[in-house]
Amino acid sequence: MKIIETDIEGVVILEPEVYGDERGYFFEGYSRERFDREVRRVDFVQDNESKSHYGVVRGLHFQKGPYAQSKLVRVVYGRVLDVAVDIRRGSPTFGRYCAVELSGENHRQIFIPRGFAHGFSVLSPEAVLQYKCDNYYAPHAEGGVAWNDPAIGIDWRVNPADVELSAKDLKHSFLADCDDLFDYHTDYYA
Question: Could you give the residue ranges of the DSSP H alpha helices within the chain?
Fold first, then answer.
């Protein structure tokens, strides 16, 4: 597994070594021992799967306070642009984002630590994502940042006229107006 650092500390891209022949392919998608040693110690407790069609933008989502989640995201079918936004007040990269194309072909994964908002746009006709979380879903602790916040300036690589959002995602505030964000100097893994 190749670990690719990004411009934002803590957010990493994982690129597996794929072994293929005429029968198909094999790769190791996750090894707790290796992940803990090479990325960080995380106790994943929940696996999720999401299916969406072209133009769907989900996000930018996070869970507040003690319900914060790390995520390890991969695409098993199709292509998405996966995005992590630093929402840790006081961080040197506060409000900046990291985006990576994940696909069923490139087998890449992105690790998004606690203190970040997460979202994705679907670039292919259909896409299926799978992601691990290190904290359980807590609806009462949901937070969100507007997908189209001009201060963040994400290029979702989807025609804006084709963007499809949930009713909940339409209501998110711009980052400057969000309460209950994270603090860069707090260890959310302690």
Answer: 32-38
